[in-house]
Design goal:
Mean pLDDT: 93
CATH architecture: Alpha-Beta Barrel
Distance between the termini: 66 Å
Number of helices: 15
Low-confidence stretches: 1-15
Radius of gyration: 21 Å
CATH topology: TIM Barrel
CATH class: Alpha Beta
Number of domains: 1
Largest sheet: 5 strands, parallel
């Protein structure tokens, strides 16, 4: 190789590819630019010892905890309080009231019937949510034109910013794109003015996530759950947020690792991003190993999620049986699992709470009121040993 050609190669290697940035030409996309940054959480409800009545004090505690975590938004999880249940609105009202405009609150539509979802969007608007996750399901065998129409009818029914949900299982579309991701449909949906972002679920592969980012990253804000994809993706597309998942699994209010790595990603500080990726790896990998298999089965490891949240100062408290989860999908939180979660925190330099696991079982606020594990109606998905 001649000196001239070697010099040319060196110069070429120094050239950085210009990253894709999401569009901010509409009011909804301006809102997304200003608010979709860092981590956003999935808000888990709290219940009194009967396992049915919402515990308002505990819910308000967890809104304050989300603010202490520096989260840029939260989405109430409604598996126990579906829209036809009066507690659905009660949960949203408590969260929105305590957030008081300091923490964006996200809604979700997840039905199969377009008119039901449109009515749900109207309810969320009246409550005052800031963004909606479109997690609807669709009949199998739809072609691209029909799927676009069903999505667009929902999105056009609201002025709220809308986030798409790229997922696997029953929310993927075999035959309409690689790994079930309907890239051509999303490409058209991305042109709607209030479509602002796409959440990429944990089981979606790196290849599929990269394809989504490449196709949509010039219009939509991309938020992968898999933060271990950041060192690669952030060099191609501006990635500034990740959320609506168990964000408490990877940071504490005192050590906001998730927020820090996303901040480095957003500003293009790849040296800091790579350093943080090494530090966060133990706790992130452990979370992935706990949650990914359960997600693929159509559920969440609820008590594990709750314990993660409690380790950093959240209320805790056991969640009731999830009536929508496939049988056998939700694992039991036992002593071995709790020890491993604490060890993962320590390996990433995070300091977990030193409170007792008995306090976790009932929740911090109930513990302070004198409630003890024996007072609960049951201990689902939990083992003392």
């Amino acid at each position: 190789m001649t000196g001239a050609s070697a010099s040319g190669l060196g110069a070429a290697l120094e050239i950085q590819v210009e990253r894709k940035w999401p569009d901010a030409s509409t009011s909804q996309r301006k809102w997304a630019r200003d608010n979709l940054h860092g981590l956003m959480s999935l808000f888990l409800p709290s219940f009194l010892p009967d396992g049915r009545t919402l515990d308002e004090e505990a819910i308000r505690h967890d809104v304050r905890h989300a603010l202490a975590q520096g989260f840029a938004g939260t989405m109430p999880m409604i598996n126990w309080t579906l829209p036809e249940d009066p507690r659905w609105e009660e949960l949203y009202r408590i969260v929105i009231d305590e957030a008081a405009g300091k923490l964006p609150v996200h809604g979700m539509v997840a039905g199969r019937d377009p008119e039901t979802d449109r009515a749900q969007l109207a309810r969320l608007e009246r409550l005052g949510v800031d963004l909606v996750l479109l997690a609807s399901t669709y009949p199998a065998g739809f072609d691209a034109a029909a799927l676009y129409d069903l999505m667009a009818r929902r999105i056009r029914a609201t002025e709220l910013p809308v986030m798409l949900y790229a997922a696997t299982g029953r929310r993927s579309f075999p035959g309409l794109g690689p790994a079930g991701q309907p890239l051509d449909v999303y490409d058209r949906i991305a042109d709607l003015p209030n479509t602002v972002a796409v959440k990429v679920s944990q089981p979606v592969s790196l290849t599929s996530t990269f394809q989504l980012a490449q196709r949509l990253g010039d219009r939509l804000s991309i938020g992968p759950v898999n933060l271990d994809f950041l060192p690669l993706l952030a060099r191609e597309v501006r990635i500034a947020w990740s959320g609506q998942w168990n964000a408490e699994a990877i940071q504490t209010p005192q050590e906001q690792l998730g927020n820090s790595i996303l901040e480095a990603s957003a500003r293009g500080d790849f040296a800091a991003l790579d350093r943080l990726a090494v530090r966060i790896e133990p706790v992130l990998s452990h979370f992935f190993a706990v949650q990914a298999p359960v997600i693929r089965m159509g559920a969440h490891p609820w008590q594990h999620n709750r314990y993660y949240q409690w380790l950093g100062g959240g209320n805790g408290g056991l969640l009731p049986i999830d009536p929508h989860a496939p049988e056998g999908a939700i694992p039991t939180l036992d002593a071995k699992a709790r020890k491993a979660m604490r060890a993962a925190f320590a390996a990433s330099g995070l300091t977990p709470t030193d409170s007792s696991d008995d306090e976790f079982v009932v929740g911090r606020t109930a513990w302070a009121r004198g409630v003890r594990p024996r007072d609960l109606a049951g201990h689902p998905y939990y083992s003392h040993d």
